[in-house]
């Protein structure tokens, strides 16, 4: 298990000093800062339990940043994630939460830059060929144009928080290859094309992470067998009561998918 303590050694030495001096552990104050950045997959759209103060950003108390912070009380969480955020939005509206004292940063972004919602709508309502065209076009963007844009963002984060451990969480494949999708059925071809876009996003994001010297966390294997329309979905299918949740992780997706991967790998 890779631990993140090296990234926050100074803060944890302070914490250790308090314990050694006889201060009760439960009374200890947080000694490290965690800033969560990103779009709806980070804010927890689909997980429910939204903070009313977050408004249209729909930050859930069940999102993976909150779940990890609850398991690591030595960290103070600043959650500035926001539904609908693009790379430009993160740079313009979220990076101000960072500082030189930030110890940990997580980020999920890029889906909206490949027009995720438009592609989903096309695949749900149009032909197989239209879905293939939309996913193919955006997959090319993810593997090419997006790489430089993401790399630039990661470097900006490093410049603002030079001592922070930066973890970039990717997107899972959203659809099970088997099972019934309701109320709108998706053919095997459409499912494969939509999952192909997730693959392209993962490949482009991983390439950008290597270029910028940050850590990419690939979520595709973690969600294997738990896509929408399957028997144990961690991703919403077509959600008619909350359309924004469609093809977003549900509460189990954040707990058993993102947070479990986060905690098991990084502490």
UniProtKB/TrEMBL annotation:
Q: Where is the SGNH hydrolase-type esterase domain?
A: 36-255
The protein's matches in SUPFAM superfamilies, at most eight in alphabetical order, are given as: SGNH hydrolase
InterPro entries for this protein: SEST-like, SGNH_hydro, SGNH_hydro_sf
The entry lists its GO molecular-function terms as: hydrolase activity
Q: Does the keyword Hydrolase apply?
A: yes
Query: Which top-level group of life is the source organism from?
Result: Bacteria
Where does the secretion signal sit in this chain?
A: 1-27
Keywords of this entry: Hydrolase, Signal
- Keyword Signal on this protein? yes
Question: Per its record, how is this protein called by name?
Answer: SGNH/GDSL hydrolase family protein
Q: Which organism is it from?
A: Streptomyces akebiae
């Amino acid at each position: 298990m890779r631990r993140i303590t090296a990234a926050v050694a100074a803060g944890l030495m302070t914490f250790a000093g308090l314990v050694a001096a006889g201060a009760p552990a439960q009374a200890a104050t947080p000694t490290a800062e965690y800033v969560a950045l990103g779009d709806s997959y980070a804010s927890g759209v689909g997980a429910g339990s939204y903070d009313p103060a977050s408004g249209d950003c729909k930050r859930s108390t069940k999102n993976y940043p909150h779940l990890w912070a609850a398991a690591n009380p030595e960290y103070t969480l600043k959650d500035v994630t926001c539904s609908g955020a693009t790379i430009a939005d993160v740079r313009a509206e979220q990076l101000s939460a960072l500082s030189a004292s930030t110890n940990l940063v997580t980020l999920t972004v890029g889906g909206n830059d490949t027009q995720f919602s438009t592609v989903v709508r096309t695949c749900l309502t149009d032909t197989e060929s239209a879905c293939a065209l939309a996913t193919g076009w955006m997959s090319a963007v993810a593997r090419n144009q997006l790489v430089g844009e993401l790399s630039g963002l990661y470097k900006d984060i490093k410049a603002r928080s030079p001592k922070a451990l930066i973890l970039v969480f990717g997107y899972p494949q959203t659809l099970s290859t088997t099972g019934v999708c309701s109320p709108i059925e998706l053919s095997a071809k459409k499912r494969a094309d939509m999952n192909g876009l997730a693959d392209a996003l993962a490949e482009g994001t991983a390439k950008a992470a290597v270029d910028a010297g940050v850590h990419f966390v690939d979520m595709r294997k973690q969600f294997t067998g738990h896509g929408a329309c399957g028997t144990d979905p961690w991703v919403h299918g077509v959600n008619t009561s909350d359309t924004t949740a469609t093809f977003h992780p549900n509460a189990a997706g954040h707990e058993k998918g993102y947070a479990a991967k986060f905690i098991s790998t990084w502490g």
